Amino acid sequence: MRLPYGAVVSIDGARLLDRLAELAQIGAIEGTQGCSRLAFSDADREGRDLVVTWMRDLGLTVTVDTVGNVVASTGGDGATGAVMTGSHIDTVGTGGRYDGNLGVLAGLEVIEATLAAGIELQRPLAVAFFSNEEGSRYPPDMMGSLAYVGGMSVESVLKVEGADGTIVGEELERIGYRGSAPCPGAIPHAYVELHIEQGPVLDRAGLQIGVVEGVQGISWTELVLTGQSNHAGTTPMALRRDPMAVAAEVAVAARDIALELGGSQVATVGSLTLHPNLVNVVPANATMTIDLRNTDEKTLQLAENQLRIRTAELAEVEGVDVTSRALARFEPVEFDGRVVNQIEQLATKSGLSMRRMPSGAGHDAQMLSRICPTAMIFVPSVDGVSHNPAEHTEEQDLIAGAQLLADTLLALTEVTW
Ligand code: HGY
Ligand code: MN
Ligand code: MN
User: Fold this and answer.
1) Is the pTM here over 0.85, yes or no?
2) Distance in angstroms (rounded) separating the CA atoms of residues 87 and 327
3) Annotated domain spans of the chain
4) How far is the CA of 99 from the centre of ligand 1 (A)?
């Protein structure tokens, strides 16, 4: 039976919720509903194995590429010409159970429901999970999807060294996901990603759906501040070259710059390591990361420049040396208006409350938008909390988002660009 335009398949919400719960058991964080599955860790491998088993059980063609991206398709040739969906199943170290996982498992559910309904589609459907979306163990974030679209060579991905001193290529080999499918990967007809909002906007407004128009720009920098290790008791304050003092001032400066610029500007110092990190030793060096984001590229550059100048001034006064390394830099992305409109029309048709909005978080969709018409669907995060084991989205919102994803993917199989 051919799918008449706009007719839909109804997803099985209970099956989706069961899979989300089962996957969340892998790397579960004791006493919370969150999980920890850092990219290419044993927990990541276990999660991958479970999802690949579900994909294979549906009889899908499953490919693993040279950086570990996994694509499952109803057609014979991966994602070529397919309407594609997906996200990631790696998490931050203190992650929730929905970040990324919802998009992958909802995509799988849409395919299962479509196959069960025996609907003949004009185009194949594909669902993917991309390697290392989080980037917290191995920068940059969205590493797998960036390579998938040709934005980072396989060779440079494989040699990235993690904060823990391990190497991507070796870890991929170790967990058995250094595949042979080509990367960059096949070009889909369209890509739509379902994701939790991870912010407070929808929850505060009491809305069910975010129709995502784009993703804000991201700038990750690592600073190494080098001073002079010294005795905490005998070294007069005037003789110190204390990198921790500079790190503290840089963190406050980053926050002040974001507050002064206002709007969507955010600044985060998420990691700080001191050496030798001992109670009675003035540190030798401090390594810190700075995450700056803005929906506007010019303002993001302004924030970067202001912080760079401020850091140099603060270091100079203290006699501390600064080296900086860019860990990730992505300009703001605008999604394809045709796909955004399609989502909005179908959400309206389904009577869902919604609003258009940008994404504050990075997503694989921002990379796929380089090679095909792309957009995203958000569902609310309770209290806007994410990257936290307490991350939560209500069941009815998870199911409504997955159903809208089904409606959108199937409608896009009927659209020619
Ligand atoms: O950093 C991000 O926005 C995403 O969670 N990787
Ligand atoms: Mn995510
Ligand atoms: Mn995330």
Assistant:
1) yes
2) 21
3) 13-216+332-412, 217-330
4) 10
